[in-house]
Amino acid sequence: MKMVRRVDRWANSSYFAQWEHPSEADKNWPKEWFNLLEHLVSPGCNIVDIGAHGGDTTIPLAVASRGGEVVAIEMGPPIDMLKINARLNPQLKIHVHKVAVSDVEGSVRYMSGCGGCNGGIDTVLEGKGKAGERVPAVRLLPFLQDQHPELLSNLCMVKIDTEGHDAAILASLASDPWRPPVVWVEWFAGYKKGPWSSCSEGSQRLFTVAADLGYSLYRPSLPLTPIKGCQNRYYEKDLLLVHKNHHLDQT
């Protein structure tokens, strides 16, 4: 079965293989996102990409790290494309892992509503879609301590896009003083429930967990603008979390 639709040349001498999947749209180099990344990460720092899909965020993150290393984590079928894209860019330091990051260890089942093009842990998606294989579930910090301890001292950013499981991953950090300086996290679209004035249970938990960990929440654009609240009227596809102990250069 053909897996690669074509290989595109992206910016900064990187390459990206487009996935030949009926439900998968082409990915383009994220110019605006990358420009912001250059303000978020320091040259040579390390990054974790949770929910890396086929690598459309992993490759820009690795380029933006300017010599740093990226731990790319994906639990579903896009892992095969992620491996291809990592091999297409041997100049980038990318470590690929097929696990699910959660707040507990054990195993979970993958759930997808589009034939594997996108998905997550089935309990989060409430059975909406077709269940797939079981994969190991890990907690972020113990996993990094076991697999990549040498990267932790210079880890500057974690990106989380896990279809509604993001708050659980953040909450797993509460028992340890370690905090990534910057977290780029999905504000799950499924949390937009009710009128504009509503703050759903899911949105409330995400905002509360982030604040309890010492993060301020911003819109993902420069200059940084604080998110006013978790109500639907303030919804952004992604949120930028900056820890109180981290100074971010916006110049």
Supply the CATH architecture of the domain at 29-99 and 140-243.
Answer: 3-Layer(aba) Sandwich
**Could you say which structural class the secondary elements and strand pairing correspond to?**
alpha/beta
Radius of gyration: 17 Å
What is the oligomer described by this structure? single chain
CATH topology of the domain at 29-99 and 140-243: Rossmann fold
Number of strands: 13
Taking the sheet with the most strands, its summary is: 7 strands, mixed
Q: Can you describe this structure?
A:
The protein is an alpha/beta fold. The protein has a domain at 29-99 and 140-243: Vaccinia Virus protein VP39 (Rossmann fold, 3-Layer(aba) Sandwich). It has helices at 31-40, 58-64, 79-88, 140-147, 166-171, 201-212, and strands at residues 4-9, 15-19, 46-50, 69-73, 93-97, 100-102, 106-112, 119-121, 130-139, 155-160, 182-186, 215-218, 238-243. The protein has a seven-stranded mixed β-sheet with strand order 5-4-3-10-11-13-12, with helices on both faces. Strands 6-9-7-8 form a four-stranded mixed β-sheet. A two-stranded antiparallel sheet has the order 1-2. The longest helix has 12 residues, at 201-212. The model has no long low-confidence stretch (mean pLDDT 94).
